[in-house]
UniProtKB/TrEMBL annotation:
Similarity section: Belongs to the ABC transporter superfamily.
Domain of life: Bacteria
Residue ranges occupied by any ABC transporter domain in the UniProt entry: 2-227
Transmembrane segments: none
Gene Ontology terms, MF aspect: ATP binding
Compositionally skewed regions (Low complexity) per UniProt: 318-338
Name by which UniProt lists this protein: ATP-binding cassette domain-containing protein
Keywords for the protein's UniProt record, in alphabetical order: ATP-binding, Nucleotide-binding, Transport
Organism: Streptomyces oryzae
SUPFAM superfamilies listed in its UniProt record: P-loop containing nucleoside triphosphate hydrolases
Secreted keyword on record: no
InterPro entries: AAA+_ATPase (IPR003593), ABC_transporter-like_ATP-bd (IPR003439), P-loop_NTPase (IPR027417)
Annotated segments matching region Disordered: 306-349
Length: 349
């Protein structure tokens, strides 16, 4: 278990982490999400005692990191894969870590095997690819067979096989009753891996909830109905007090009801249905809605007049009024620079 209480970190005038209080519990994979610069890595560094909090506290199984005896048995972490001595062989790097934590040498071979680096164990990490470096970092995290695992963007640079492997690994570690805390920007991957989510924006807690609840609360779920008699079905739905919208392909989209009720209405009125499906929003959509106001670094496409930042509360279905997602000015209302403007300014300056 990792417990944060009012955890705060200030760098000069930048409040990187702002009063975070939450608990990461064992037995489940907890995803840690937030836009670039939200404070995820800073939070993780404070968990490991690599950065001192300006205010507040963080404890691992009730202790500060510095109080843990043989910490690799309590918590294994992958922060930045760059934190490896490039000239020391992969095997020796892990052996050093093992020896300083009372871990037997055979475990080094075991973890190298687990992460698929057995064949390059005698090679130096400075010649490793990004994904190989990540695998070595993951091997180091697993070395002490720890009860808590914390990974900062572990899938960064991994190939599809590697991504699949780490997803399965994290879920297995959680099933064994361990605490697994992982950050990632890959929403589709996170949606498949984590059961619980902690979301932050500009250092502050935005959500601490289950994956399913997070998606339900921050996005729109609707029922899609396709029928050869759309006008009749429309009347049936309106008579039942619902407000269906017509999608671009002619299907009806109904908010505020469930598929079984709509199916029963269709049956009672003898309307033939070709499709009746519940459409759930993705984690990506829910995340972008929740964090729209906390995104600090916006990118603009050539020719953009307005930033494409989805935001605001879930809107009505397409076809009724405003679309659920739409372009809007970035927070602060500033128009982005015209494409090439900065480059031209740079040239002039
Ligand atoms: N050592 C430091 N000195 C000064 N500012 C820092 C330092 N480390 C982080 N920051 C600032 O703190 C804020 C949070 O950074 P952090 O790296 O924790 O964000 P993050 O959520 O991990 O972002 P990303 O998704 O891009 O990895 C940023 O504004 C960053 O510039
Ligand atoms: Mg980070």
């Amino acid at each position: 278990m990792i417990e944060l209480e009012d955890l705060t970190k200030r760098y000069g005038d930048k409040l990187a982490v702002d009063g975070l209080s939450f608990t990461v519990r064992p037995g489940t994979v907890t995803g840690f999400l937030g836009p670039n610069g939200a404070g995820k890595s800073t939070t993780m560094r404070m968990v490991l005692g690599l950065d001192a909090p300006t205010r507040g506290d963080v404890r691992i199984e009730g202790k500060h990191y510095g109080e843990l005896q043989e910490p690799l048995h309590s918590i294994g972490a992958l922060l930045e894969a760059k934190g490896v001595h490039g000239g020391r062989r992969a095997y020796d790097h892990l052996l050093c870590m093992a020896q300083s934590n009372g871990i037997p040498e055979r475990r080094v071979g075991e973890v190298l095997e687990m992460v698929g680096l057995h064949d390059v164990a005698r090679k130096r990490p400075k010649g490793f690819s990004l994904g190989m470096g990540q695998r070595l970092g993951i091997a180091a995290a697993l070395l002490g067979d720890p009860r808590i695992l914390m990974f900062d963007e572990p899938v960064n640079g991994l190939d599809p096989e590697g991504i699949h492997w780490i997803r399965t690994l994290m879920q297995q570690l959680a099933r064994e009753g361990r605490t697994v805390f992982v950050s990632s920007h890959l929403m589709s991957e996170m949606a498949q891996t984590a059961e619980h989510l902690v979301v932050i924006g500009q250092g502050r807690l935005l959500a601490d909830t289950s994956m399913s609840q997070f998606i339900a609360e921050n996005s729109r779920t609707h029922v899609r109905v396709r029928t050869p008699e759309p006008e009749r079905m429309l009347d049936v739905l309106v008579e039942a007090g619902l407000r269906p919208a017509t999608a671009a392909d002619g299907a009806l989209e109904v908010d505020g009801s469930e598929a079984p009720r709509i199916g029963e209405l269709a049956a009672a009125n003898q309307v033939v249905l070709h499709e009746l499906s519940t459409q759930r929003a993705s984690l990506e959509e829910a995340f972008m809605r929740l964090t729209a106001q906390s995104v600090e670094y916006h990118a603009y496409a050539p020719g953009d007049v307005q930033a494409a930042v989805p935001g605001g509360p879930p809107g009505p279905p397409a076809g009724t009024a405003a679309p659920p997602q739409g372009g809007q000015a970035p927070p602060g209302g500033q128009a982005p620079p015209a494409w090439g403007e900065n480059w031209r300014k740079g040239r002039r300056g």
